[in-house]
Amino acid sequence: MDPSIIVALISLAGSVIVAMLSYSASRRGVREASEANAKLIAYKLEELQKKVDKHNNLVERTYKLEGQMAEVQHDIRDIKAKL
User: Fold this and answer.
1) What is the rounded distance in angstroms from the CA atom of residue 29 to the CA atom of residue 13?
2) CA within 20 to 30 Å of 53's CA: 18, 44, 61, 71, which one?
3) Which among 12, 11, 31 is positioned nearest to 23, based on CA atoms?
């Protein structure tokens, strides 16, 4: 076999190995980045859920206070009517 063909085959094998290693490292980096991104999204979603819960609690309390104020106003009108 011609020595130039042997050198070309060795170069080809080296190039393929380097390309495969580079591809593998690239996929690992992308996988790690996507996992980190997923964790960040999950964290932000949890924080948003906490804020929504606080808001809903405030709305419920406000609704109760409005009902109580309506009762108080009705009682005041009754007391004024008696006077």
Assistant:
1) 24
2) 71
3) 31
Reference 15, options 23, 4, 3, 26; nearest CA is 23
* CA distance linking residue 15 with residue 63, whole number of Å: 71
Q: Which residues of 57-81 are buried (b: 16+ CB within 10 A; e: fewer)?
A: eeeeeeeeeeeeeeeeeeeeeeeee
Indicate if the pLDDT at residue 1 is higher than 80.
no
H-helix or E-strand spanning residue 15: helix 3-82
d(CA 39, CA 43): 6
Residue 9 to residue 3: CA distance in whole angstroms: 10
Residue 14 scores a pLDDT above 80: yes
